[in-house]
Design a protein that fits this description.
The structure is a homohexamer.
Chain A lengths: L2 E7 L5 H19 L7 E7 L4 E3 L2 E2 H10 L4
Parallel strand pairs in A: 1-2
Antiparallel strand pairs in A: 3-4
Chain lengths: ~70, ~70, ~70, ~70, ~70, ~70
């Protein structure tokens, strides 16, 4: 009866890619722990890039900086 | 001081139904564990049907298949 | 296909009370949104009182202060 | 390697305020536990006021009542 | 910068199986979305069987019933 | 009415350090968003090092390797 949450930044993942994540996470639980897929939930949460921080900065800022080609 | 998260697929729950979920979950904590409602939080999260998977498929696909009347 | 998480402080809830929470939360989703109980998950998380804070203090400290009968 | 989730009601927090939350939460983990900011994630989740309940009522209703100046 | 949470019942998953879950979930994010493994977190949460409910009953009760070979 | 979850590996954080995290996170919400501390929850979750993965490996393995002084 597993529940898997996959949290990613909202940066263009397609419907097909999300379906692959759901399929893949379910298969993983079935293969490793012999879980029943019928009661395996996978939930994807997309988070805006200005709502996700790493190293004290938003991903939005990190992406802008990377585009401009300035460090770090 | 309970915190309750209710995660459902986004499929047309009304504002009134959400208020009923919040009222009902709060009452449950009060009745069963004598919790103080003033510090009982209930948060509802609606998840798109192509972000929720069960049995390795998205709910969006399951709903489309059910509409077409084809198995499983 | 709802998923409900109930987070409470670990302060002596019995196995029977937890079963009541699970039953009650499931019934709530069935009654309000006509969800299928067979795919309704309820997960209870008990949190140590020194891991839960409110108003900037741990519940452990608040409980100790309440026992001593001192404010606020 | 901390992961911090900050859940707030969606009531007008600005992009700059969110950046401050991310910066502040990261600094807190660095100062208190000497964590590496490069592997410290902070995720902000904004929740609609009719999806957040306290004392059995939605924040949306509480805000409307406060505006009208009627108790409690 | 994905964050994956895998919630399972505590029913004897070994340290090696948990390592496989972590490896597999990370590979999935790399393969499907080209994410950087260095900033991919996977967190496993084991939940006691009397803290997890499905169909209104705890997994603990369901397991006991299955052992006794009685329905439903 | 914020809810903050701080998830860290279980590696010896003291009760005092946890109280500092709770105090600091509450202050942050008060200072940045003028939130009421009386309805600000902070919950700390400690995760075993073999339940937390980064770059496809458990923190337990990374810590052991670091102790032995072998790369990467």
């Amino acid at each position: 009866m597993p529940y898997v949450k996959i949290q990613i930044t909202r940066e263009g993942a397609t419907r097909d890619q999300k379906a692959q994540l759901i399929r893949g996470a379910t298969d993983l639980l079935v293969q490793v722990l012999d879980k029943d897929p019928a009661t395996t939930f996978v939930v994807i949460e997309e988070v805006e890039t200005d709502h996700w921080g790493i190293a004290g900065e938003t991903v939005a800022v990190l992406r802008e900086r990377a585009k401009r080609g300035t460090g770090p």
